[in-house]
Amino acid sequence: MELVENILTQNPCYQAGKKITVRGLMLHSVGCPQPSAEVFVRKWNNPEAARACVHAFIDGNTGKIYQTLPWEHRAWHGGGSSNNTHIGVEMCEPACIKYTGGASFTCSDRDAAMAVVKRTYDAAVELFAFLCQKFGLDPLADGVIVSHKEGHDRGIASGHGDPDHLWNGLKSGYTMDGFRKDVNAAMGQPAPKPQLSPATSQSIPAAVQSIPAAAQPAPAAGSMAISDRGVELIAGYEGCKLEAYLCPAGVWTIGYGHTAGVKQGDRLPSQEAARALLKEDLKKYGDYVNACVRKGLISFPLTQNQFDALTSFCYNCGNGNLQKLVSGRDAATVAEKLLLYNKGGGKVLTGLVRRREEERALFLS
Question: What predicted TM-score, i.e. pTM, was given to this entire model?
Answer without folding.
Answer: 0.55
